């Protein structure tokens, strides 16, 4: 339902390419957007994947809330790392590398990236020149739109967390 409304909202946009995280929920959203835009299948891009939570993967939030390391991760991400997984700096580096490569490859054409809240937050934080620890200061809802213009000399945040459902 959210994916369908998002796809309808983006139908009139001049989207040239869609890149998506390999997770099933993002692939479904990307496929709905591609169908509405009349584009070929989205390109699956590992750099858009969710944070690798390492040994925390598969555990419930109730269980994790009792873990001191998990609480620290959520309080001070600039100095924390998921056990056997990624730091937020790792996440930020991989998404920014992909965005720069995609901008170089496709020039001034519009690319839709379908990813996850923490990954999107890592980009916005970079764009605004904030610390990784600012990740809790704003929301990125599921199936929302955040717009960033990437040009050769500047990145501009044009919109954040536009909810269409």
TrEMBL record:
Q: Which InterPro entries match?
A: His_Pase_superF_clade-1, His_PPase_superfam, PGM_Phosphatase
Cite a GO CC annotation. cytoplasm
Q: Name one GO molecular function term.
A: phosphatase activity
Taxonomy, superkingdom: Bacteria
Which named protein is this? Answer: Phosphoglycerate mutase
Source organism per entry reads Chelatococcus reniformis
């Amino acid at each position: 339902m959210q994916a369908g409304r998002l796809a309808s909202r983006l139908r009139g946009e001049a989207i040239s390419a869609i890149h998506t995280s390999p997770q099933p929920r993002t692939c479904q959203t990307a496929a709905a957007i591609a169908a509405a835009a009349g584009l070929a299948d989205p390109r699956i891009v590992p750099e858009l994947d969710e944070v690798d939570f390492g040994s925390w993967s598969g555990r419930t939030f109730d269980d994790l809330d009792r873990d001191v390391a998990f609480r620290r991760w959520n309080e001070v991400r600039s100095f924390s790392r998921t056990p056997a997984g990624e730091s937020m700096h790792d996440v930020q580096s991989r998404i920014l590398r992909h965005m720069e490569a995609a901008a170089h490859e496709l020039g001034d054409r519009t690319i839709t990236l379908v990813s996850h809240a923490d990954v999107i937050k890592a980009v916005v934080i970079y764009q605004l020149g904030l610390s990784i620890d600012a990740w809790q200061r704003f929301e990125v809802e599921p199936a929302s739109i955040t717009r960033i213009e990437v040009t050769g000399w500047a990145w501009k945040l044009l919109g954040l967390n536009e909810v269409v459902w």
